[in-house]
Amino acid sequence: MKVTEAKFICGAVDPRGFPKDGLPEIAFIGRSNVGKSSLINSLLGTKKLARTSNTPGRTQQINFFKVNGQFYFVDLPGYGYARISKAQRQELQRLLEKYLAPRDTFMLSILLVDSRHLPTELDLQMKSWLEQHARPVLVVLTKSDKLSNNELRNQLIEIRAALGTDQVIPYSAVTGKGKEALWNSILTQIGVGN
To answer: What is the pTM of this model?
Structure first.
């Protein structure tokens, strides 16, 4: 995929702020610190569009990035970060549910899991929730460059079994491994050509 234009459109804290132009949306979701912003920046060929942070739990709004004027990448708040209050966690959960459940333009959820670890209980709950709401899910394993080929092969087997899916793409924002496969899956899902 040749990205000719990618721009930040808005950060929304409730549905009134979501774009209303009807373009397809691809949502990126995962635990805090799983590498969501790095993956989005890598796919878009930029270093600074999605803000990365060494502090997990920074994204507390839903960020929309328009790609080539054709569709949106949607950066959802990370889940599972313990240092925010219970009330903040509940508010973030409500915001996620307001976005994920009712949108007709929502075409694909990309569930990010750290390739070095088995999916957490929260990862499994998120996948189950998306499936119960008939939302297509593609699992992407981030930070795959941190593992040897052998370790990654073994992790793939275990993670596929834990999540009950073969739809898993290992990805590295550092080396670009998995980038073409992920773009192909995204474009196929939303019906946009390369």
So the answer is: 0.88
